[in-house]
Design a protein that fits this description.
This protein is mostly helical. It has 4 helices and no strands.
């Protein structure tokens, strides 16, 4: 992959990281600011359910942030866009759809089929 394309993916990944960190900060501030003293047990239960859901989303985003960091590292070390399983180049269309991917479409399909069988 040429340097210009790599820089485009770097920018895309950095923007994604910025958005993830912004959402995490927003969640921390909102949870700290919320009035958590509802006299009604149903309201407290609803708030707790909402918090749990929000934290699950943030945990998924935390995992995605780790993948973004790893992808940025692969750009730095020259292995970005190379399938970790077969060593083939990952298509640009796949990288645009999933910039953190580490597998070409063929290897990903094969891995998903193996997962279904087990």
């Amino acid at each position: 992959m040429d340097a210009e394309k790599l820089e485009q993916f770097r920018q895309l990944l950095q923007e994604e990281m910025k958005a993830l960190l912004s959402e995490a900060d927003r969640t921390v501030h909102e949870m700290g600011d919320e009035a958590s003293h509802f006299p009604d047990p149903t309201d407290r239960a609803t708030q707790e359910s909402d918090r749990t859901f929000e934290l699950r989303i943030r945990d998924r985003e935390r995992k995605l942030a780790n993948k973004v960091r790893e992808a940025l590292g692969r750009i730095d070390d020259g292995t970005y866009g190379i399938c970790e399983d077969c060593g083939a180049e990952i298509s640009e269309a796949r990288l645009k759809a999933r910039p953190v991917t580490t597998q070409c479409i063929d290897c990903k399909i094969e891995a998903e089929e193996k997962e279904k069988r087990h």
